[in-house]
């Protein structure tokens, strides 16, 4: 599904290399977690995959179902089925959540050369998904993320993901600011959307999130590279002993 080969990334305006030859393969239908100490480049990886500016790819590639997404515009990546749950969801005053989602869904369809979803169909789909994810219908009418609590923003992110039906979801969960309840919401959302044709890359500093999402594969990232790969037990090892032992072992 997603194959990242020897990815090298530096800051655009500074001579600072952040990703230093990162290799990662995420198979179809699998949930992979990336853990790692602060500053190891986890967020940079998610930003570069999403097409956010400010970074320069100096080598390597990221192949999603046979196509190098690093050569695509952000919208094209979304059309190819990539979804990135942003660390800090933007607030869009004056734009209703429903309108925003419908625009996003139809932009994706248009980029794929598909017909737009009619408003009747869209309403039907969004109501069904909101119900499935236990999201209050009232939230759909409010302006995007404006005045949303941390938990509501997370719910909204999951709803966005459900509506766009991506094949590759990347979630970068910040080290701070995610309380236990919000973390559970993220986990429930991921678990509800897990499916044979959909892969997840869940990035997290702490093991806690992985108490609720059992990943198929766990990677440890340090200093711009994946340094160790294993099963769920690797996350437990980090919880117990921190990163020091693993980093010493691979050094
Ligand atoms: P992580 O998410 O693992 O904590 P980041 O990707 O946020 O790591 O950061 C990796 C390194 O790159 C850090 O040393 C960070 O300070 C630096 N970095 C990332 N983005 C920027 C930026 N826009 N400007 C300056 N330094 C940055
Ligand atoms: Mg950080
Ligand atoms: Mg980060």
Automatic annotation (TrEMBL):
It comes from the Bacteria. PROSITE patterns: ABC_TRANSPORTER_1, ABC_TRANSPORTER_2. InterPro entries: AAA+_ATPase, ABC_transporter-like_ATP-bd, ABC_transporter-like_CS, FeS-cluster_ATPase_SufC, P-loop_NTPase. SUPFAM superfamilies: P-loop containing nucleoside triphosphate hydrolases. Residues 2-248 form the ABC transporter domain. Pfam families: ABC_tran. The keyword Lipid metabolism does not apply. Belongs to the ABC transporter superfamily. Ycf16 family. NCBIfam families: sufC. This is Fe-S cluster assembly ATPase SufC.
